[in-house]
Structure formats: structure tokens, C-alpha cells
Specification:
The structure is a homodimer.
Chain A lengths: L5 E5 L12 E2 L9 E2 L3 E4 L13 E8 L14 E5 L11 E4 L3 E3 L3 E4 L9 E2 L10 E3 L7 H9 L4 E5 L3 E7 L3 E2 L10 E2 L2 H11 L3 E8 L3 H14 L2 E5 L9 H7 L4 E6 L3 E2 L5 E5 L2 E6 L3 H19 L11 E6 L10 E11 L2 E6 L8 H4 L3 E5 L11 E6 L1
Parallel strand pairs in A: 5-6, 13-16, 13-17, 14-15, 17-21, 19-23, 22-24
Antiparallel strand pairs in A: 1-12, 2-11, 3-10, 4-6, 4-7, 5-9, 8-9, 18-20, 20-21, 22-26, 23-24, 23-25, 25-26
Helix pairs in contact in A: 2-5, 3-4
């Protein structure tokens, strides 16, 4: 799996996008030795013994203008006026702050010694010429855009965003627009998965609800595989009497189904498949399971289609103590939604309702705790790792 | 400060937007008692003594169709076939899983007792009729979109996104597009702040670089205040010889400057002002300071213009132990960038370079540790709170 292409975008449109190649700096950043203060560029050695009683008296040799090259050189016994951000002139190796300098007729009195390099940020202190500032696969954040602007990259090459088709199945499922009939529910997965795809850097397209019969499901899947970079289909894949979605995926073509059914709660009825280069993921019908499985399997796939280095996703793990016991879900790994609370004695995680029908257990959650399969689960007060949402 | 208006958007465009009003559910979610499994709807009392040896023999009284109203009632001694997600028929109070039922001619044998409510999710278990599912001010996340779809809200009313003008000042500052000249640097704040505004829910507009002179700075600020909901201007506000940006802000009109200079490192030269309803924030010229001050002052202002409840920003605090000592920055609160690392004995935070000229200290950071002003700072190994970026 790889990005299907790249494009150039302006920096303001590059937030959250993934770099298509390494970016190296064509020059030092800052590009020259800069003064950190308003003051006087000097040779540090000239100020070695300076004090308020015995100031170092230096010849006023000129002034550095902001944004202009430093044409004056600072010779021994000389000082040159320099503004904050000004370019350090040749010969100088430090800047005396104006607060510690008295100015007189043609001379200045430096009343405090400065060390070499003092009040100066050296050329290349932030980024050195040729250094790879951001590696291919980085998802760009706000400060990154500043660096890219600083090294003269008003546009960057990023990977194309994968287009993700979202299908829902079920004879009882209506669109959000439809009036509710007895025995029917509205499609919650379409909107929830579209949000998850967007948040992960993809472009979602909700293709709607398909009746739970082979012909329409297979036809809808074929259209989705032909027109999109990835396909999510929810519902209908539980290992029961009818398993039309799984059968339909199996008919689409090689390599076909790779995994069917996983030992995770919620989310057992999960299908991982591919048709040619297009990943097809069958998600459980209920929205909590669908979103948990999305995070676990679909987002990593989407990130590979984005060419994204998962390390650039930002920090999203914390440790917390469990407010109450979480028993093991037996033969399945349990992904429990928790709410976090900072107390005086540290961070606590309170588990929310277990039922995968309760989507509000996810809207109220701050994170997920994974309870391993088998074993005793976690005792109340146990320290656990929480994946932040 | 309040949102300047609201708009209706489709759910797929509502991710990250802020609700303009409370959203209550017009019906229960799920709208009816639903079966969690494929099986048989029964009266739990009829199965009380059921076992493999002595199954409860019930009359096969019909079948519930998926997506259809449950027209059949379940009488004493009866069972009705029901699919996962099917509507529980009147009279029934539980579902026996098909794995525990043998079917015969006109009757079914339930081989395991079920309790009232077993394998059923009750109407309203997720959301009850009339309950406010999301309060005004909530920033919408992916699972929220699922709930909104489920309660029949394909479109929601959200607040308008504030338009934020971004100005940079400085005679030495060029646009990212410009070729570098000796003594000049490129504008890094425009792009970095645009990214920060976008990530916070605003619409940034980079108005470019203005020469550090009163007339052009004042004119640019007046245009920005007239045309945008918020103005960010960076550079030129240090308390030095020239303080044109601060003076220009002071001329714009009442209420004017509220705060000038704050005891924070990096970021001392900060101006908080307003012109009529438009907040104007003067940020330091160097990008690390500008972004730290943005997080501290500009983002909360932007969130108020969005009408956003800050609690809906998601969890963004962790505790970690300091990999090495962080001394106090004396009379200023120090905002130090740190990199997080999960070790066997817990989470550790390694401080990155202190210099506010080093923007790579922010691009490499996972979070910020605030060292209080005065005092001794933090010892190596001390547990500190980290604000995640």
C-alpha cells in the first residue's frame, strides 16, 4: 500500500497533510549570526575587564541597519550599534546590551563584560544547511509550517489524500434524512466513520445504505472498489445465518479476504480484505464497534495509503489508575471507553458502559483502555495505559 | 466576545465545528427494544428451569422481519424468531440465542434459561427522548456525528468560524516566496500562526509583512480590524527603543490596550487589546514565542469567538517525570518544550533547547511544561504536568 500520487500545496493548505519527500534546508536558519538584543556589537575580548567603575571605552564605528547586510567590520577597540535581529558585523563576536552601555561623543562605555557568543544566535542554530528538517511521511503541524516558510518553501509536495468510500448495510437501516418507521433505525455509521476518516487525513464519501442482499451489496462494493482508494462497509458481517457482506467481499477478486473475525470486543465481526490495491474493511454494524475497529485496523491502513509515519501522529498515550475494576472479557481483547479525571493524587480513568450499543460511551470518552484477553483483567486502582481519543 | 453568527452544515462538514445550541433527541435511541443476537424472543419466566436435559418447549409463533414493525405478540409458552437488531415483539422480555435453541416441528426447545432483559438493548438505553445529547458550545468529534445521524439530524446549526487576520512586521522580514538577501530572514510567523488558527477552528488570512513604521503598521491594522473578527500581529512589540506596533494598536480606538508585557518566557513582548468587539493580539517576533503566546492567550480568545466550551477540546494533559533539571527562569514563568518517552518505569519528559529562536524545539516537542516564576524550578526526576501539543 502506498500513496496514489502527490501534489504541491501552499503552506496554509498543508496543515495535517503528509510530506511526500524529505525536506532539506537550502541554507542555515537563521541565515546569519543575529543579535538577540538592542545594543552594541563588540569583540568580547575588549570587554573582559569592563565594570561600572572601569568601563571598556570603545570607538563608535557605525550602525547596523535592520534587514541590511552588515557592511561595517568591527576592529579591536570598536563597537557598532545593532538592533534586535540585526546581522552581526564581521570581527564582532558578542553584543553588549544597551542597558549596560553609556554613549558619549564618538565613543561608547561598556560597563559589563560580555563573553564570546553572548546575546547572539549563531547562523544555523535552528537548522543547518543541508539538514533534513522533516522526513518524508511527516504529518505537518503548525510550527512545521513556520520552519518551511523560514527555509523558503512557500509550497510543499504532499501525498494525495485517499478517497474512502463508506457503505452501510442492513434492511432496518435508514438514512439520517429519513423519517423513522417502527422497527427501523437510522444509519449512524456513515456519519461517524466519515468523521473518523476526515480526522485521519482521508476524504470520505458516504455512499449510503444498501439492502442486505447479495446482488445490491456486491454491486455497491464493486462500484466502490472501482472508484475509491479504500472501502469501509459496515454491518452484516457477523458470523450468523446470513453473512452477505463477507460473501460479497469474497467475490470481488484477488487477493480477497485476509482476516475474518478477530478476538476483540467490541468488534468481533470484522473482515480485512483487499481487491487489487484497494483495501476493503468490513466493520461491525453497531457504531461503537465500528469506530473501535476503525481505530485499530482502518486508520493504520489509511495512514499507509497516506504514506504517513505513525510517529508523527502526536502523543496520544497516558497512564492512569482505574477508578474501578475491569474484568477480562474472556477470550476477547476488550477495548473499554474511559473518562479521565485529574485528582490530587494523579490521573484516574473511570470506565464507561461496556455495551457496544451505547455510542454515548464513546462521545463521553477521553480514551480507550485495552483489557487483554484471558487472565483476570485489571483491579480497581491498577495503573493502565490509556489511548487518548 | 461571542460568535458573530451561526450556519447550518451537513454532518460531514460538521467535524470540529462548534454547536450553536443544545441538541435534544426527539426520540429514544435505540427507538425500540432491540435484539442483540440472532435467536428467539421469549418470556424469560417460561425458560426459568430450562437446561439441556430439560429444555423449555415453546410454540413457534412466528418471525420478526428485519426493519419491520413487530406485529406478532409473544404469549405465555411461545417463542418468535428474531434477527440481531430486530424489534422485540410485545409480550417478550428476553431473547434466547439460537446457539441454545433446538428447532422442531412447530416448536422450539430452549436449552438454557434467560433472564428478563437478556440479549436485549432497551429503547432509550443510549439516549432517552428529550435528553440534551450535546450542549451548546461542544466541538464535534467523529462519534458525535453518529449520534446526530441517529437522532435524525442530518444537518446541525454551528457557530461561524472566526476570520483571523495575521500580520507580520519587521524591516528585515521577507515573505516565504522572496529570495533571501544578506541581513534578511523570511516570515515564519505568518505560516505557523495560520496553522495554529486553523487547528483551533478559525479561518486564517495571512495579510503579509509590513514595514516597521507607524504609517504602514497603523494602516494595515485598521484594515485588519475593519475586515476580520480577530487580529494577530507579530514582531515589533518588544519594550525597546522602537515600539511601533504597540503605539499603533493604542491609536486604533477604544477599549484599546488591556495588557502590555507579561511575565512569561518565551513571550514577554505581548500586547492584549481590543478595538470595539475585535480582539487584537500583539505577539513576539520570534516564532517559538509567538506560538507559545498564541496557545496561552490567542487560542482561548478564538475559542470564545467560536462559542466553544473549552472542556470539549479533548484530553491534553499528562504527568511525566523530568529527565533532567529545569531551573526557574527567575521573574518569568517559563514554558519549556519537552519530548515525551514511555519507559518501563513510566512516562518521562526530556526538555528541549530553551532558546526561543529555536523553532525546531517546538516541531520536535510533544508538549509544554510550565516552570513557575521564582522558586527553584523542578529537580530532575520531579513529576510535572505536561500540556500536550
Amino acid at each position: 500500500m502506498a500513496p496514489r500520487g502527490t501534489e504541491h500545496v501552499a503552506l496554509v493548505h498543508a496543515l495535517g497533510r503528509v510530506l511526500a519527500g524529505d525536506v532539506a534546508s537550502p541554507h542555515d536558519l537563521p541565515p546569519f549570526d543575529r543579535s538577540l538584543v538592542d545594543g552594541w556589537a563588540v569583540r568580547a575580548a575588549d570587554t573582559e575587564t569592563a565594570s561600572q567603575q572601569t568601563p571598556a571605552r570603545l570607538r563608535h564605528a557605525g550602525e547596523i541597519r535592520m534587514g541590511a547586510p552588515a557592511r561595517i567590520a568591527v576592529g579591536p577597540g570598536e563597537a557598532v550599534r545593532i538592533p534586535t535581529g540585526g546581522m552581526l558585523p564581521q570581527g564582532a563576536d558578542a553584543v553588549a546590551m544597551q542597558e549596560h552601555v553609556q554613549t558619549g561623543e564618538g565613543e561608547v562605555a561598556v560597563e559589563r563584560a560580555v563573553k564570546a557568543g553572548e546575546n547572539v544566535v549563531a547562523a544555523g542554530a535552528d537548522v543547518r544547511t543541508g539538514r533534513v528538517v522533516f522526513a518524508r511521511g511527516r504529518r505537518l503541524r503548525a510550527p512545521d509550517l513556520g520552519i518551511l516558510a523560514g527555509i523558503g518553501r512557500p509550497r510543499v509536495q504532499v501525498t494525495l489524500q485517499p478517497r474512502v468510500a463508506i457503505l452501510s448495510t442492513g434492511d432496518e437501516v435508514l438514512a439520517a434524512e429519513d423519517p423513522l418507521q417502527p422497527g427501523t433505525v437510522r444509519d449512524m455509521n456513515g456519519a461517524a466513520l466519515a468523521g473518523a476518516v476526515l480526522a485521519s487525513g482521508g476524504i470520505p464519501e458516504i455512499l449510503g445504505v444498501v439492502r442486505d442482499e447479495m446482488a445490491p451489496v456486491e454491486a455497491a462494493l464493486r462500484r466502490a472498489v472501482a472508484g475509491y482508494d479504500m472501502v469501509l462497509v459496515s454491518g452484516g458481517s457477523s458470523v450468523g445465518e446470513r453473512d452477505i457482506v463477507t460473501d460479497a467481499i469474497a467475490r470481488l477478486g484477488p487477493p480477497g479476504i485476509i482476516v475474518h473475525g478477530i478476538a476483540v470486543r467490541p468488534g468481533k465481526p470484522t473482515v480485512l480484505a483487499a481487491v487489487g490495491p484497494v483495501p476493503v474493511i468490513g466493520l461491525p454494524g453497531n457504531p461503537v464497534s465500528a469506530l473501535v475497529i476503525f481505530d485499530l485496523f482502518a486508520r493504520p491502513v489509511l495512514e499507509r495509503l497516506l504514506g504517513m509515519d505513525p510517529a508523527s501522529r502526536g502523543w496520544h498515550r497516558v497512564r492512569a489508575r482505574l477508578a474501578f475494576r475491569l474484568p477480562s472479557a474472556g477470550p476477547r481483547e476488550d477495548h473499554r471507553r474511559v473518562k479521565l479525571e485529574m485528582r490530587a493524587d494523579g490521573l484516574w480513568a473511570a470506565p464507561l458502559p461496556a455495551g457496544s450499543q451505547i455510542l454515548t460511551s464513546l462521545t463521553e470518552a477521553d480514551g480507550i483502555v485495552v483489557v487483554p484477553l484471558g487472565g483476570d483483567g485489571f483491579a480497581a486502582g491498577a495503573e493502565v495505559e490509556v489511548q487518548l481519543l
